[in-house]
Amino acid sequence: MTWIIGIDEAGYGPNLGPLVMSAVAFRIPDHVKELDLWKLLRWAVRRPDEDDDGRLLIEDSKLVYSSARGLAALEYGVLAAAPQKEKPSRRLCEILQDLSLPIVQEVEQEPWYHGNTAVPVLTEPETLAAGAKLFSDACKQAGIIRGLVRSAIVCPARFNQLVDYYGSKGGVLGHGLAHLLPAQVNSCTDQDKLLIFIDKHGGRNSYAAMVQHALPESLVLAHEEGMARSVYSVHGLGREVRMAFQPRADAEHFCVALASMVSKYLRELLMLEFNEFWMEKVDGLKATAGYPGDAARFFEAILPVIKRLGIARETIWRRR
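Structure (tokenized):
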């Protein structure tokens, strides 16, 4: 058996709101030589250039969601493809308990977070149940087993601390990997091969030290480090482990695309509560996605409230 694990994030660039980094795993049987899950699950999933016929749209979250497109396709894909409880309608806090690692507790300390947002936000429960069955049946027919879906959430206070300590935002991604990699590796059955694909950011080419920190009991060997990709083998874990960091991995690997979507969906739900909190306190304030430019407008408007409530600036505004 081979486990394919994809890791990606959402919210790396904004000044406001959390960064969410997620990992998604699927187990492929040995007799299946085709590792493209878009093909293996083709009667349940689609890509943007295919007809919208009820199948789940699984792709880089930037191609699934935008302020113009809305949340519907992103929500449908994430909630139908990610493991779900039997209860169709739930609250954000319950979703986070299922998908998030223990560091989700940091989110609970945010002044704007309440976790009571009803999920799904837009999708009818009957539609979601049909999509979940479609995806589950496709996995069963192909002999594919869904593994863990886990997310690490980094709020501004922690984000700023990590940037200050490491001197760059790369340290934030390393922090996420340090939580996600052990959780996924330890959950996979012993002896099964692991192929891990991670979306690459910026100009960084060397990730060996970052992976070694995340998996301290292993030995990480670099095989290729360049702009096109960085490839590693991880030894000492009792099974074959290969790992590749590459640009636009979400366009090539299904698991990375789904991880991108999970991260984006969780961030959007959290930003709904973020905007709700501040818009209740500032008359006429328009919502923000938190990205540079518009974030300054929003932050300037809420600054008097921040001061009045005695909230530290660095717990709201990300410096990079």
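The CA atoms of residues 14 and 291 lie 4 Å apart. The chain has a mean pLDDT of 91.
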